Amino acid sequence: MTAGETAVAVAHPNIALIKYWGKRDERLVLPVTDSLSLTLDVFPTTTAVRLDPDAAEDHVVMDGVLARGEALRRATAFLGLVRERAGRRERAVVDTRNTVPVGAGLASSASGFAALALAAAHAYGLPGDAEELSRLARRGSGSAARSVFGGFVVWHAGDPDAPDPDRASYAQPVTDARLDAALVAVVLDEGPKPVSSREAMRRTVATSPLYRDWVTGSRTDLARMRAALRAGDMATVGAISERNALGMHATMEAARPAVRYRTADTDAVLGHVRRLRAEGLGAWATMDAGPNVKVLCASADAERVAARMREVTDARVVVARGGPGARLRRVTT
Ligand code: PMV
Q: 221 CA distance to ligand 1 centroid (A)?
């Protein structure tokens, strides 16, 4: 692209059913375990990137507000990586708009860095296929590697002994899944989280006595889930997802000092999900680095599950289904 042109990319958040929790390499953002997610059809992030040859610094606007502090540092570090790979020096003007609450465990960093990776790679003329884009997005935020693709996606941790561990860790679509699933998001709190996922992971890996067991269990969970996705077995996919998420929260609650994202409201929603199941409605809970709950169910049951959740909470309830991967929307001069 030449100076003055703007690349605009759109990406959607994803919710992991087998979670990513813990890095084995902080700088390269290499995870300890493989993870598996569903990219959503709601809450997209739209990011525009334009190169400015006259600027001395990157200029980043997020939801209409000039970024500063940690958010600016992360975006600038990421743009620096793209420049280094592209062999370019121009600074960028970035305008990003989220429709997902930022920092509340609803994966704004996943859609954010997937959209930024695609728009910036295009603006700086960085070549590469979608797998390469997922490696790049990973460096911004691990879960962003998965938002490059639509539907069910697996992110390979990669072999730690591979000659190039960076190349070995990328996401891919799960092409043999035969399940039409939905996630009903119960948005209890839209505010930023008290502890960043980065810090919470670090603390869990370093101090939680439960972490090793969760890692071992996660490997078995992934193999079983892939088989259940192939078989279209909603109940098994649901049970594994709920167990994996509760296990992840248990590991961090056992860290020192403990990290607790769950609140009394979270626990009340979890109880309600169990009651729906006892009544015969297929619904399973998953939670990320925040108090919000996403209820996994068959797509055909999503409106019924959402209606039942609205009976017991005033929180915003949003039905999400499988959505698309990151894509370039336009390039304008
Ligand atoms: O990509 P990060 O650093 O925001 O980590 C997100 C981790 C979880 O959302 C809690 C789990 C996951 O796999 O998305």
A: 17
How many whole angstroms from 21 Cα to the centroid of ligand 1? 7
Atom of ligand 1 nearest to the CA of 289: 10
Going by alpha carbons, the residue nearest to atom 10 of ligand 1 is: 288
CA of 139 to the centre of ligand 1 (A): 13
CA distances from 85 to 3, 4, 82 (A): 18, 21, 5
| Biggest CA pair distance of the chain | 64
Decide if pLDDT at 190 tops 60: yes
Ligand 1 and 16: CB distance under 6 A? yes
Q: What is the pLDDT of residues 291-300, one digit of tens each?
A: 999 999 999 9
Q: Which domains does the chain have, with CATH numbers?
A: 6-175 (3.30.230.10), 181-321 (3.30.70.890)
Q: Is residue 328 pLDDT above 80, yes or no? A: yes
Q: pLDDT of 76-126, one tens digit each?
A: 999 999 999 999 999 999 999 998 766 555 667 999 999 999 999 999 999
Ligand 1 geometric centre to CA of 218 (Å) = 15
- CA 31-12-183 angle, 5° bins: 85
Query: Using a 6 Å cutoff on CB, does residue 142 contact ligand 1?
Result: yes
Q: Provide mean pLDDT across the span 313-327.
A: 96
Question: Residue 8: which H helix or E strand, with range?
Answer: strand 6-11
